[in-house]
Amino acid sequence: MDVFLVPVGPDAYEMYCEHVDEPDAPAEEVPAGRLGRFSPRFLFGRMKRRFHEMLVEAERERRRENAAAVEGSWFVRVRRRMMRWVAETIAEQRLLWNLRRYDEATLHYPLDLSEPAAERQIRHQLSRDYEKHRFWLAIDSVLMVLSGLLILVPGPNFIGYYFAFRVVGHFFSVRGARNGLDRVVWTKVPNGPLAELRTALSMSAADRLRVAESVASILQLDHLATFFQRTAASS
User: With pLDDT > 70 as the criterion, what percentage of the chain qualifies?
Assistant: First the structure.
């Protein structure tokens, strides 16, 4: 797995990776016994399977040329908006979700940054992400349980789906951050093109985008320019 440490401010960095295909979700196995379908293990397994299905659907929706179209029934419009939100969440948490499945990773860091400093950056960010997602995992788990009361209301339980997605997403993020801190063996490689992004921080938005697109082309990263524009602006 390749991870890129992207400079987004004078002393600020963000970790980035391109899309890595998720493995197929495991088939649902009903535990033995009358209450097997209501066991926490089986219920969470179903949530994970639905989560994987939503990832596939969200990626497909993101690639559609008419993803921004609003035609269709109320249900269709709400579903499209939800899938676009899911796609944005995938972009933000993809690195942690993928990191949970690896024992080795390569960190590409800017050439003008020392290796010890790069290592401090990734450990700081993974620790920060671990605490953040662990906090929200607890909060959203409670809210998901409470949203179950809406099952009595006719129609799709969008609120329940929303919190279920967040619970599984935060769970994967916690596992990815913890795995990155404790198990992953990091190979660190200095990268010249990444250092060029630092010089682009003081440029106008148009010039910054031009440099980012050039770096993305050199590194063969399809979405790096968009990521850099968004994170550099927010920083």
Answer: 63
Determine the residue type at 129. D
Are 42 and 28 in contact by the 8 Å Cβ rule? The answer is yes
Is residue 139 a contact partner of residue 170, using CB atoms and an 8 Å limit? no
**Residue 37 DSSP symbol:** G
Distance CA 221, CA 60 (A): 19
**What pTM did the predictor assign?**
0.73
Using DSSP's 3-state secondary structure scheme, residue 185 falls into strand
* Cβ atoms 100, 175 nearer than 8 A: yes
Structure tokens belonging to residue 215: 């770096």
pLDDT tens, position by position, 182-220: 999 999 999 999 999 999 999 998 999 999 999 999 999
**HSE-up (13 A, CA, CB side) for residue 74:** 3
Placement of tokens 């089986």 in the chain: 42
Phi, psi at 20, each rounded to 5°? -120, 125
DSSP state at residue 36: G
